[in-house]
């Protein structure tokens, strides 16, 4: 598990060391209680824009006599690791094109000014509503979704594919419309949040659902902050699982949960060599630092800067697309084949792996490759 402290944990511990309550901080800094709790729980969805998040982080850190520059740098580092958006290495050319279009179409500038005014009104109402909520919201809530599919998975939820490192963990932020899927010893698993139970802010428990595809059942369990739950094949409801999965809750809000997911022991009697319709399995070995992103069966996966020495395992049922900032910085192994260089040059490299039926055996498939 990761041992470094996160932004929310640093702020909360510094406040508690000074024997201050959240309301003490609110009174001294004029930051609403709602936003202080959001910073400590790392629930940045509570803020209308990142500018406000950074501004409140600086004010809060300065009041606690912390190094605000270091806190903001740590926040940005964590956001880059968990972001679903490409970093500037890839987006910068696009931004230049947009800038040129704005220069050519200066007529849109009045609309930008109107947007800024609208945002200011929105922020004012945001603060005003929060003051009212602080005085009136004292009732415990139980926020459990009742609209579910036949699998017991809330309807309308989207699952983003992720890959979990062999000897590490990865953070997932689960919301009522966003879950994650990942591969465990050639089993496709899905995890999502069904809701949150709470009697008070200290007793929140996230209700999580876990599914092993293509099984139709969902295993439901509850977890609280700093609690660690082990999903194991020793559990009769998870007996088909081929490897232990360890879930640890980092923070829980009224409608989301941030968890760390890692692997435990493999099942000794498990035989999982794929036959017939074999999934596309790719392993990337990063020999130098570079940006990379991928899409698995049409769903966008991890997008971030990978560092030298990292390894990324990817899997798709029918189609897997890769995009790497520096093709020479990566070596690749496809379905157990020999490890080779992704590209010989240091340019942006794209690869597509897809399956087609074997013309000589209809029960088998061939994995083909397209790319730069």
Which structural class best describes the helix and strand composition? alpha+beta
The CATH superfamily name of the largest domain is Tick-borne Encephalitis virus Glycoprotein, domain 1
Number of continuous helical runs:
7
Low-confidence stretches: 84-98, 126-150, 271-276
Account of the protein in words:
The protein has 372 residues and is α+β, with helices and mostly antiparallel strands. It has four domains: 76 residues, 434 Repressor (Amino-terminal Domain) (Orthogonal Bundle); 49 residues; 124 residues, Tick-borne Encephalitis virus Glycoprotein, domain 1; 92 residues. It contains seven helices and 19 strands. A hairpin with a 2-residue loop joins strand 12 and strand 13. About 12% of the residues have low confidence.
Show the helix and strand layout:
Elements: H1 7-17, H2 22-29, H3 33-41, H4 50-63, H5 68-82, H6 88-104, H7 109-136, E1 142-144, E2 158-161, E3 169-175, E4 178-184, E5 187-197, E6 205-213, E7 219-223, E8 228-231, E9 243-252, E10 256-266, E11 280-286, E12 290-296, E13 299-306, E14 311-316, E15 319-324, E16 330-334, E17 340-341, E18 349-358, E19 361-371
Helix pairs in contact: 4-5
């Amino acid at each position: 598990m990761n041992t470094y402290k996160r932004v929310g944990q640093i702020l909360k511990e510094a406040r508690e060391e000074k024997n201050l309550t959240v309301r003490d901080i609110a009174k001294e800094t004029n930051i609403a209680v709602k936003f202080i709790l959001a910073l400590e729980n790392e629930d940045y969805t509570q803020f209308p824009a990142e500018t406000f998040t950074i501004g409140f982080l600086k004010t809060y850190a300065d009041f606690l006599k912390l190094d605000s520059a270091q806190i903001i740098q740590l926040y940005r580092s964590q956001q880059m690791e968990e972001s679903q958006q490409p970093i500037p290495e890839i987006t910068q050319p696009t931004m230049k094109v947009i800038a040129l279009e704005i220069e050519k179409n200066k007529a849109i500038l009045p609309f930008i000014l109107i947007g800024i005014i609208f945002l200011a009104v929105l922020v004012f109402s945001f603060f005003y509503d929060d003051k009212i909520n602080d005085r009136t919201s004292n009732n415990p809530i139980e926020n459990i979704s009742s609209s579910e599919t036949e699998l017991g998975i809330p309807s309308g939820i989207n699952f983003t594919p992720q890959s979990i490192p062999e000897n590490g963990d990865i953070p997932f932020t689960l919301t009522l419309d966003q879950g994650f899927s990942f591969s465990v010893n050639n089993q496709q698993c899905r995890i999502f949040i069904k809701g949150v139970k709470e009697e008070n802010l200290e007793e929140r428990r996230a209700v999580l659902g876990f599914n092993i595809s293509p099984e139709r059942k969902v295993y439901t369990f509850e977890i609280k902050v700093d609690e660690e739950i082990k999903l194991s094949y020793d559990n009769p409801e998870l007996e088909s699982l081929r490897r232990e999965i360890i879930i640890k809750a980092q923070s829980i809000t009224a409608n989301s949960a941030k968890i760390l997911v890692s692997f435990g022991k493999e099942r000794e009697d498990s035989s999982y060599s794929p036959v017939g319709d074999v999934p596309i399995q790719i392993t990337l070995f990063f020999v130098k630092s570079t940006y990379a992103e991928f899409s698995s069966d049409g769903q966008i996966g991890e997008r971030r800067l990978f560092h030298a020495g990292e390894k990324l395992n990817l899997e798709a049922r029918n189609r897997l697309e890769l995009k790497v900032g520096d093709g020479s910085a990566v070596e690749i192994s496809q379905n157990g084949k020999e490890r080779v260089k992704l590209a010989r040059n240091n340019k942006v490299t794209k690869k597509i792996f897809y399956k087609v039926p074997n013309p000589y055996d209809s029960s088998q498939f061939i994995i083909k490759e397209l790319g730069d």
